[in-house]
């Protein structure tokens, strides 16, 4: 079963080096229970020629809109106090994304404190962190546009089971 939750090892692991800029977007090379993975085994989106996305990417759109948009702006485009994640995900590694979300970050830029809160205990974020990552990666790679995806695959039972387990609901 594909788990939605981040393991403790992923959250407390030291930040990985920033991945080099990639000439072409990563491609899905495998899938399990409707969740796609790239050659490195990291979650990745799947978008068909009509713009229909996999369930995890669609869930990421929903979760981003509910949990992240108020700071990072609509569609990951940034705001006056939080960076454009569509730009950040062009170079930020999956591991660094997980670490930043879970552990937070504080930057002093142009005389202003910019603070990413620690969200490692927020189930509304961490139970869906891979979903949020795949949505933002799809936005960063221009695989999906600045609106709700036009369609999505059905919700896999494995996703629903993992959501219930992570959120503490009966399955």
Automatic annotation (TrEMBL):
GO molecular function: electron transfer activity; heme binding; metal ion binding
InterPro entries referenced in this protein's UniProt entry, alphabetically: C-typ_cyt_methanol_metab-rel, Cyt_c-like_dom, Cyt_c-like_dom_sf
Keyword Iron belongs to the record: yes
Keyword Metal-binding assigned: yes
Start-end of Basic and acidic residues biased regions: 143-160
Cytochrome c domain: residues covered: 36-140
Disordered, as annotated region: 143-171
Keyword terms of this UniProt record: Heme, Iron, Metal-binding
Domain of life: Bacteria
NCBIfam families, sorted: 4cys_cytochr (TIGR03874)
Name used for this protein in its record: C-type cytochrome, methanol metabolism-related
Organism listed in the record: Rhodoblastus sphagnicola
